[in-house]
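> @MW can you paste both from yesterday?
MW: sure, first one:
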Amino acid sequence: MSAPAASTAIVSAGKKIGFAINPARSLNGSAEIYHDGPADMFIAKAPASTDLASWDGDGEWFKVHEFLSPS
């Protein structure tokens, strides 16, 4: 099984975005996803008039969510 291809989304300012983990698409076929510790989610705004398919991600990234480790 190969990893899914990267993709981009155009999101207007003020709109909500979501994130989901689909264990059926895990690389090893396992239905269990485990991470012993926190995980952070970051996004960045691409510069105006940038070709998103070739953008290298250079720029200002900011944290939008933190997943805390299980207690």
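MW: second:
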Amino acid sequence: MKTLAPLLLSLLLLGCSSTSDMYLSQTPVEVTDENISDYWVQTNERFRFNLPIQRAIGKNEDGYVKLRFLIDSNGNTFNPEVVESTPAGMWDYAGVKALSKQHFVPAESNRSKVPVYLTQTIYFKG
């Protein structure tokens, strides 16, 4: 009974943690910044988040991160991959964190909620 209680507690806690599951209504298509609005519209253009203090101290350089990621049929982002970043590696964590804050809704022309792969550049001020 003593070993069963921690096991049940662990299962309960794991069951309560929610992560969205990827949903694909069909095979994703590759899109660009120029035609993403034919498929998906970003609901939040600007947002804020805190970076760990050790990442922020002494790093006053501007930069960018180019990420390739999947927008699933629910408008959630998955599988971020850093394609390019400047200065190299400095803003990678922040770019992935920023991507996790983005959500998309289907465009009027995307009634079937076609999932897409998008490569997007996120810019940062130091």
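> thanks! The first strand starts at residue 29 and ends at 31.
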